[in-house]
Structure formats: structure tokens, C-alpha cells
Automatic annotation (TrEMBL):
InterPro entries: Kinesin_motor_dom_sf, Myo9, Myosin_head_motor_dom-like, P-loop_NTPase, RA_dom
Protein name: Unconventional myosin-IXa
Gene source species: Eschrichtius robustus
Entry keyword set: Actin-binding, ATP-binding, Coiled coil, Cytoplasm, Membrane, Motor protein, Myosin, Nucleotide-binding, Synapse
Localisation: Cytoplasm; Membrane; Synapse
PANTHER family documented for this protein: UNCONVENTIONAL MYOSIN-IXA (PTHR46184:SF3), UNCONVENTIONAL MYOSIN-IXB-LIKE PROTEIN (PTHR46184)
Lineage of the organism: Eukaryota, Metazoa, Chordata, Craniata, Vertebrata
Length: 502
């Protein structure tokens, strides 16, 4: 295109005022001049030919930062992301924010070569990557001497936990530069332990986090990892006693039942998963055939998920627990408690007589098993399961539970035991992650936090837990919007100040 070309001025017809001229090279190399109107006619013709398939579609250029899209609207934004995804580019920037699209397959972009490539690089210079975000946070922390935080948000199954793992991996790799010190090993070992006890298969995600976590990696001012801290939020306790169709209980139960040795099976009185009430609800889906006739359709079970090797997972868990500092004796106690919870769920009740509401346990042979595994007296356990103690003015009353109450109490006991176990595991992990140097007052520490909470959920039956999860997501989104708008507002001010100063 030529602006104010001599030729255009010379050849212009009266009344036409060319400001530019279109110049096109023909196939034989000769130059062809055209007016804007003729060029528009040709392009329109080309567009029609392409639409009919006579001409090849032009290769669409993709933008690695959505802010660079010439025309930013929902359609172009989604098309750009789709186009990139087709070429296995799962990451795209929106300024300093990173969008990740779950590829649901392994991509070879997380090996040490990539760690090196993204070390100390300027955001936007290379293809967008999760390592680039970790790198920017790390160097911003070192340069500005300020703590940093990375917030990960997205609906269930979108890849938040996987992204957290990549971030933690890169954050520790940047610090160690090739050497795996003790603390980094513990940080990396903590992930599989938390996942085994706090993740489960859901309808949306085979490895869904059923708790929120904030992992804070602490550094010395030189950038060396000092230690870490894990904060846990709201473990979904209801899953322990009830799961929706096609969902499972926490992974650790299936690992234990598949991977325990013969000796452990005997010691913990282990059975098959389908023999435990807390695990066998998934196989049966009520199928309504007519209005007054319900029957239970036997669906294929989901005790094992495609591609899963539970025995191997149990071995991996044992290794990770060892890395985090759980001694064999402690591990045995943990597995004994898990077995006790499973047996506890099998306790069922019946009315003693038709006349009153008093109840009895219909399978008393389970009681000695639970009492042995929990190391509590059988009588005390029985009392706790069938009676309630209340104190009135100067009087202690022991009242029997009603049938429905007793089932709720049994489930509450199981939920409390598991929740206490999970809290204790997080506590022990934190103890192992805490470096004594953290506590020394003369060492100034910096940190990078990664927030990974459960994603937005909408099931057929949504419980109080879904309400809490979705509310937390809404709050996080609100915080994010506020933060981004504040940054946007600050930007013009900073620009004006800079212009005035210069
Ligand atoms: N970058 C990735 N590369 C390969 N696979 C991935 C990636 N991100 C996610 N996945 C796959 O998607 C699955 C679900 O991801 P993830 O568990 O991280 O989701 P989530 O957002 O944390 O879900 P929830 O909120 O339910 O915990 C993973 O188990 C993994 O198989």
C-alpha cells in the first residue's frame, strides 16, 4: 500500500481524491495497481470462494496473549483459545493472568529442559507456561522483597490441583537448582499423602480434591527454600458415609484394601470393598420403573477407575508417607484407624421390642473388631453407639437413642474420626515441613503461597457442602475482580505520574 502516491494523483479522475493506492504483485512478477473499491471487490469474491470451499481457508494466527487480540469479544476469545488448544498450546496469557485448558493427556512440556528455559525470563518472551508464572512470582519476591501469592480458580476437574503441583515443582526446582535437599523432598512428598486422604473420584473428576489448601513455600532472602506450611480448609466429611452414584469414598480406603499385605489383612480384619457399607453404595442406582415401583439396577461398579493401579498407588502412598516422616508404627496405626471406620459403618441397629423405642445392635460381632482396632473398651463403644448421656439439675441421665438417631450417631462418629485423622496428618506434615531455621528470629523469610480450593460444583443433589464450596468460589472470584479492577485503576494514575515526572 502506498500513501499519497504520485501515480494515484496523476491518474485520478476528477472528483476522486486518492490518498493511497493498492499495489499488488501478479504471478508473473508484474505490478498491478488498483483502487480501494476494486480491492474490496476482489476480497469479497475471495471470501465467497473460500466459503464454498474453492479456495483453502487461511491459516488462522493465534495470539498467546488475549490482550493482543485486535477485536476482543467472546467469539474471538474462544476461537483463539480453541485454535491454540488444537495445536496443543494449553496456556494463554491475559496480561499477567494465565489461562490453562485441561488437555486430559500428558504433554511433554514439564521436563527439566522447560524448568531451565523459563528460569528468570520475562513474561511474554516465551510461549505461555505455568512455569513462567512460578518464575515471575519467585523473581518478584526476590527483587521486591515482598511475599507473593498465586490464586488458582476454575470449576471442578479443570486442572487446578495439577497446576498447583506443577507450580510447587517449579518453585522448589528454582530454589534448589539441581539439588534435591531434604525440605524440597518433603514438600513434594506431602502432595501424594494429602491427595490419598483428601481426594476422591467424583462424577466430574477421578481425582477431585475434597478439601481446600493453601501451600506456602518459605524462602531465605537468597532464594533458597527454608520450609513450607499447608493450611487446609473444609474437608467434605459427608462423603465418608454417603456417595452419589458413580462417586467414591476417599482414595486411601481403596488403596488399603487393594494393597495391604496378607499379614495386614488379617490384623485389620480387611474384607472386599463391596462388603463395606461406606464403600458399596456406588454400585446401586435406584431405577424408577413406574410410579409405585422402585428397583435397584445393578450398574457396573466403580471400585477401580480406568488406568488406575490401586496396589501401586498404595506402595506410592507408603513411600510418600515415609518421605514426610511417618514411621512404620504410625502408618500401621493410621491404617488400623481407617479399617475401624470401615467396620464401624457396617454396624446396624434393630428395635429391641415392638413396644418401646430402645434399640440393639444386630451384628454385635463387629463390636470387638472395632474396639480392637480403635484400642477402646468394647463396653464403652457399645454405650457410645446406643445411649446418650445428659445432665439435668444434679442428675445424670442415660437415655437410649432412637433407631434413626443411632444411625446418625454412628455416622457422626466415623466422620469425626476421619476428620481428626486428616487434621492430624496435616499437622504432622507441617511439623515435617517446618524448618527450625524458620523459627530463628534473625532470619528474614519471604514466601510464595499457592491457593488451590475445590472448584465450582453443580450436582443432581447439592448438599450444604456444595453450598460452602460454591460460596467460597464466588468470594474468590469477587476478590479477584476487585483486585484486577484496582490494578487497572492504578495503572492510568501511574502513567500520568510518570508522564508528569518526565
Ligand atoms: N496440565 C495437565 N496435563 C495433563 N493432564 C491434566 C492437566 N491438568 C489436569 N489434567 C488432568 O485432569 C484431571 C483433573 O485435574 P485436577 O484434579 O487438577 O482438577 P481440579 O480443578 O483440581 O478439580 P477439583 O476442583 O475437582 O479438585 C487430572 O487428574 C489430570 O488427569
Amino acid at each position: 500500500m502506498m500513501l499519497w502516491p504520485r501515480m494515484a494523483l496523476e491518474n485520478r479522475l476528477s472528483g476522486e481524491d486518492y490518498r493511497f493506492l493498492l499495489r499488488e504483485k501478479n504471478l508473473d512478477g508484474s505490478i498491478h495497481y488498483g483502487s480501494l473499491q476494486s480491492w474490496l471487490r476482489v476480497t469479497e469474491e475471495r471470501r465467497r470462494m473460500m466459503e464454498r470451499g474453492f479456495l483453502p481457508q487461511p491459516q488462522q494466527k493465534d495470539f498467546d496473549d488475549l490482550c493482543s487480540l485486535p477485536d476482543l469479544n467472546e467469539k474471538t476469545l474462544l476461537e483463539n483459545l480453541r485454535n491454540r488448544f488444537k495445536h496443543e498450546k494449553i496456556y494463554t496469557y491475559v496480561g499477567s493472568i494465565l489461562i490453562a485448558i485441561n488437555p486430559f493427556k500428558f504433554l511433554p512440556i514439564y521436563n527439566p529442559k522447560y524448568v531451565k528455559m523459563y528460569d528468570n525470563h520475562q513474561l511474554g518472551k516465551l510461549e505461555p507456561h505455568i512455569y513462567a508464572v512460578a518464575d515471575v512470582a519467585y523473581h518478584a519476591m526476590l527483587q521486591r522483597k515482598r511475599n507473593q501469592c498465586i490464586v488458582i480458580s476454575g470449576e471442578s476437574g479443570s486442572g487446578k490441583t495439577q497446576s498447583t503441583n506443577f507450580l510447587i515443582h517449579h518453585l522448589t526446582a528454582l530454589s534448589q537448582k539441581g539439588f534435591a535437599s531434604g525440605v524440597e523432598q518433603i514438600i513434594l512428598g506431602a502432595g501424594p499423602v494429602l491427595e490419598a486422604f483428601g481426594n476422591a473420584k467424583t462424577a466430574h473428576n477421578n481425582n477431585s480434591s475434597r478439601f481446600g489448601k493453601f501451600i506456602q513455600v518459605n524462602y531465605q532472602e537468597t532464594g533458597t527454600v527454608l520450609g513450607a506450611y499447608v493450611e487446609k480448609y473444609l474437608l467434605e466429611k459427608s462423603r465418608l458415609v454417603y456417595q452419589e452414584h458413580n462417586e467414591r469414598n476417599y482414595h486411601v480406603f481403596y488403596y488399603l484394601l487393594a494393597g495391604a499385605s496378607e499379614e495386614e489383612r488379617l490384623a485389620f480384619h480387611l474384607k472386599q470393598p463391596e462388603e463395606y457399607h461406606y464403600l458399596n453404595q456406588i454400585t446401586k442406582k435406584p431405577l424408577r420403573q413406574s410410579w409405585d415401583d422402585y428397583c435397584y439396577d445393578s450398574e457396573p461398579d466403580c471400585f477401580t477407575v480406568e488406568g488406575e493401579d490401586l496396589r501401586h498407588d498404595f506402595e506410592r502412598l507408603q513411600l510418600a508417607m515415609e518421605m514426610v516422616g511417618f514411621l512404620p508404627k504410625t502408618r500401621r496405626q493410621i491404617f488400623s484407624l481407617l479399617s475401624a471406620i470401615l467396620h464401624l459403618g457396617n454396624i446396624c441397629y434393630k428395635k429391641k421390642t415392638y413396644r418401646d423405642d430402645s434399640i440393639d445392635i444386630c451384628n454385635p460381632e463387629v463390636l470387638p473388631v472395632v474396639s480392637e482396632l480403635l484400642e477402646v473398651k468394647e463396653e464403652m463403644l457399645f454405650e457410645a453407639l446406643v445411649t446418650r448421656k445428659t445432665v439435668t439439675v444434679g442428675e445424670k441421665l442415660i437415655l437410649p437413642y432412637k433407631l434413626a438417631e443411632a444411625v446418625t450417631v454412628r455416622n457422626s462418629m466415623a466422620k469425626s474420626l476421619y476428620s481428626a485423622l486428616f487434621d492430624w496428618i496435616v499437622f504432622r506434615i507441617n511439623h515435617a515441613l517446618m524448618n527450625s531455621k524458620d523459627l530463628e528470629q534473625n532470619i528474614k523469610t519471604l514466601s510464595i503461597g499457592v491457593l488451590d480450593i475445590f472448584g465450582f460444583e453443580d450436582y443432581e443433589n447439592n448438599s450444604f457442602e456444595q453450598f460452602c464450596i460454591n460460596f467460597a468460589n464466588e468470594r474468590l472470584q469477587h476478590y479477584f475482580n476487585q483486585h484486577i479492577f484496582k490494578l487497572e485503576q492504578m495503572m492510568p494514575k501511574a502513567c500520568i505520574q510518570n508522564t508528569l515526572a518526565s
